[in-house]
Amino acid sequence: MSMNNSPNVFLDPNANRFQVNIINESHDNNETSQEDVGSDPPHYEETSFTDEAHNRLRISYRPGKKELYDNFLQNGEKMEASLHPYDTHTKMYYLQTFGHNTVDPVPKIDYYRNTGSISGNKLNRPSLLEIHEQLAKNIAVTTGSVERVANGESTTGDEAAVSKEEENKSGLVKFGWVKGVLVRCMLNIWGVMLFIRLSWIIGQAGIGLGVIIILLATMVTSITGLSTSAIATNGFVRGGGAYYLISRSLGPEFGGSIGLIFAFANAVAVAMYVVGFAETVVELLKESDTLMVDESNDIRIIGTITVVCLLGISVAGMEWEAKAQVILLIVLLVAIANFFIGTVIPTNNEKKARGFFNYQASIFAENFGPDFRSGEGFFSVFAIFFPAATGILAGANISGDLKDPQIAIPKGTMLAILITTVAYIGVAICAASCVVRDATGNINDTVVPGMSCNGSACSLGYDFSRCASQPCDYGLMNNFQVMSMVSGFGPLITAGIFSATLSSALASLVSAPKVFQALCKDNVYKGLEFFAKGYGKNNEPIRGYVLTFLIAMAFILIAELNTIAPIISNFFLASYALINFSCFHASYAKSPGWRPAFRYYNMWVSLFGALLCCGVMFVINWWAALITYAIELFLYIYVTYKKPEVNWGSSTQALYYVNALDSALALTTVEDHVKNFRPQCIVLTGAPMIRPALLDITHTFTKNNGLCICCEVYTGPRKLCVKEMNSGMAKKQAWLTKNKRKAFYAAVAADSFRDGVKSLLQASGLGRMKPNTLVIGFKKDWRNAPATQVENYVGIIHDAFDFELGMIIVRISQGFDISQFPYFSQYTEELEKLEQERLALEATIKENDFEERKSGICGFFRKATTLNISKHELKKESTINTMQSMHVGEFNQKLLEASTQFKKKQGKGTIDIWWLFDDGGLTILIPYILSIRKKWKNCKLRIFTGGKANRIEEEKLVMASLLSKFRIKFADINIICDINIKPNKESWKFFEEMIEPYRLHESCKDITTAEKLKRETPWKITDAELEAFKEKSYRQVRLNELLQEHSRAANLIVLSLPVARKGVVSDYLYMAWLEILSKNLPPTLMVRGNHKNVLTFYS
Question: Amino acid permease N-terminal domain location, by residue (predicted)?
């Protein structure tokens, strides 16, 4: 029972809706204030579900103000009046839902519309942030509609104007399922075949096989109809027919390829149907001896006039075209009825001589079996009949002009298939039950007693036996005008032929531009956007009509339609096959978004239908099928190569996900094996574009080989970090894709950098596709950085080892971070600005007329491009001059060059591997992978390792044997014997000076002072620590001397990373080791595996 005591109730016509009250926090009106006095606590109207006969939508209002609410539209979709008569600009209004004041909106269809929807305005629901965060108390709100206030959406004046214009836009012509789909499909399916060739088909195949031929063709179209219905009811359908259905299901590659050939097929079909009409007219002229020139030219003349008239009807608008279709359908139905009536009208001697005897059981029995002649067979006859069953997409092709495509397409298409199939079978059986296969047409060929007579006509008094030895002109097998002979009034059959040909031509003339316009609007083919423009209230594709007219005229004048007809039939069949496959594919992908309202389909039946269509293509004409496949494959490859920037949520995308998920799950059941080890790296690049060189070197050995995840850690106020992180995820992944980096982007928000990296190390990856190696750049500014940053940096290395990950630290002389490069942000902004200008220019070009494009646009584009380039060059010159004046140009130039050094092909040289400690083989595997890459293939591997002076040759042999077993090619092996000797004094002095600022020097102070300093600066290097690790420090300094001596000219150095014991070696001492070890060297990779084998010599 409702708790709302308000007597003013607005009835909601929709069933099962809950009550929604709109209330105000406070009002400035005196009347309101007085009314509210003494109401403690204030009374809020409650909302509940009600069992009343009419569920109600209640709105609270002030007494005496009910008339102000009378303008509210109470259908739950639109309210034109302002929210409340006491609206102010300083108070916040809320939607009261389920008895609570909230900005949380109720479910509404307008939230789910696409931007720019023609069926209604898209509304934006409050974001999760607005619902989740604290609500500001004083929010300025302008007077507006209930949607804007209650749903938290602000609408600009321009948007409101556009919205109002769309609402007031009237005169759109939309068709229901009868006029829009049923009529069109019936007219397109019933063609000339019904009146001219069906009798011949039934004569060849007989009633039994003839009905099977019709049912087989119907099975193909019915399965396609079911698939079409399923796809059409899986969401809102726009204009474009078969192209729209296929492209939104399978993606632009399939949709773009089939859309172009489908539109072309419809355009050529116009010529085919018009020529069929012209041939019938010419036959009539020939009978009356009134030919204008000759048969061929008369066909061209009449065809041209006909196409011009049909174009006029189409350009006049869909409403006129629909009226013409209805008139043609009436004529066609009258012609068919005329045939059935004629079968029961008693025949005369002339018709009997031509083989027509009304319904006779003997004729039915004789014509039931097949009698294939002239080399015909079941499949050849089927190939001739099948085009008569096509045309089922005539309604779907104008999907944009239907009131409700989701209802109209399934109902109209399936009913049209049923009606036309019944008509085909009925005409075939009736004709075969009344007319013999062969007749002479001579009324004197009666049965003569004593003479042998064969055939069912003998029992009816006529002897047509001589037709077995010589050609006859009449009967099912010989006379294409059987229906005219049988009908009650012959000229009506001629009118039916005219109606069938003209209606099919008109349907194709409308379908081709509509499909082509949808294809051009999607900009799948960049050069065709000119034809996307529509005119008038129905957005008619006038330019497409003209193009279709020109194509039809060309083929009418060429008059070689017998050659092109099989290809056109195969084009239609290819469309049917892809529609069936689309339905199967969408079902197979198991996407939650695949929820067709039409339930009478099956994915395996759809797959069978697709295969059946492909088979029928080869039955009709094998070479035409091959041509169709070749054209479709070419267009598919073209669209795939061009990669149109569209995202339609196709089933192809869904299947990618399903396959990836299945593969990832299957991978979890596969045990790790050393032979299948591959580096799977987490790279701490931050934003990928900030440290491109670090990404490039990692990408070199992970591309097509292993996982690469570019990671970024956001630290700071959590709210701002999360907002910035969420807004940048897609952009940075898109940057990786655009720059052809086969890597993923991941980001976390954390209290500290180290905590964020910990999260990434533990949670990144999926199943077996988890990172096993951490890649970071060397912290070049560690000596100037705060102690917490150094602690975090070294802590990350410890964490990686704790989680048993390999570790790679990369160092280049100029550093990785180019975000500090002067004018970097300005340079990036300038590039973005130039890109926006280019897109704006392209948009301007698209709006120009065809003549402008032909004459002046190319020159204008070239001029604009030159202008942009000149501006860019001037800007670049200005930047360089400024930088030179700042005396930093040389350094910044080196920085930019360093940031791209790993993108370039490396010249002949070496990769020097200092494999000092056995870490499982990662130190040797990484450079090996690099050496087989295209950019590094000219670099030889040189191996350096430690050994004893008296065993140099033996050590070389041992290492060579090991590498040969690992099948790793190398150019040279060097045994270093003097690693453990002391470095020279200059080098050691440099090291001591480097660590001096970070030493505690506690031995020079009293115990109390030393203890205090240890507590205040625990990160400093103690004298005891330095003494304990003096030998290790000597080794790092000495190694740098050896590296300078042997590897100064190497293209890349890979050496074993020293490991610092956690809690024993201080952070600054460890950083000093890394600094002195890799100082003044070519690009260096300090590598340490997780001490698990990554190499094996077993097969």
Answer: 87-153
Residue pair 1052/911 in contact by the 8 Å Cβ criterion = yes
Cite the DSSP H helix spans in 435-489. Answer: 482-486
In whole angstroms, what is the distance from residue 474 CA to residue 467 CA?
10
Q: How many Å apart are CA 1047 and CA 939, to the nearest integer?
A: 13
Question: What does DSSP assign to residue 677?
Answer: -
- Pick the closest to residue 588 from 235, 224, 249, 248 (CA basis): 249
Residue 980 corresponds to which tokens in the numbers above? 């453990």
Instruction: Please state, in angstroms and rounded to a whole number, the distance separating the CA atoms of residues 239 and 461.
Output: 60
CB 403, CB 170: distance < 8 Å: no
CA 224/CA 605 separation, integer angstroms: 10
- Cβ pair 196, 417 in contact under 8 A: no
Res 1058 pLDDT > 80: yes
Q: pTM score, two decimals?
A: 0.68
pLDDT in tens, 401-429: 788 888 888 999 999 999 999 999 999 99
Q: What share of the chain is helix, strand, coil (3-state, %, to 5)?
A: 55, 10, 35
Residue ranges per structural domain of the chain: 177-439+474-642, 670-818, 909-1082
Ranges of H-type helices in 811-857 = 824-846, 850-852
Biggest alpha carbon–alpha carbon distance for the chain: 149
At residue 683, what are phi and psi to the nearest 5 degrees? -115, 120
Contact 332, 190 (CB under 8 A): yes
- Number of Cβ atoms within 10 Å of the Cβ of 659: 11
Residue 1022 has pLDDT above 80, yes or no: yes
Contact between 531 and 547 under an 8 Å Cβ cutoff? The reply is: yes
User: What letter represents residue 979's amino acid?
Assistant: I
- The residue whose two tokens read 């956690």 is 1062
The answer to whether the bond into 7 is cis (omega within 30° of 0) is: no
Position 44: which residue type?
Y
Q: Give every CB contact of residue 873 below 8 A, 6+ residues apart in sequence.
A: none
Q: Spell out a b/e string for 436-462, using b for 16 or more CB atoms within 10 Å of the CB, else e.
A: bbbbbbeeebbeeeeeebebbbbebeb
pLDDT single digits (tens) 294-350: 877 888 898 899 999 988 888 877 777 788 888 888 998 999 999 999 999 988 888
Instruction: Please state, in angstroms and as integers, the Cα–Cα distance from residue 479 to each residue in 484, 485, 489, following that order.
Output: 10, 10, 17
> What is the rounded average pLDDT of the residues 430-456?
83
Fold observed for domain 177-439+474-642: Amino acid/polyamine transporter I (1.20.1740)
3-state secondary structure of 137: coil
670-818: CATH class = alpha beta
Write down how long the chain is: 1099
Alpha-carbon distance of 738 to 732, in angstroms, equals 10
Cα 944 to Cα 1047: distance, rounded to the nearest angstrom: 10
- Identify the burial level of 722 via C-beta atoms within 10 angstroms of its C-beta, where 0-12 means exposed, 13-18 middle and 19 or more buried: middle
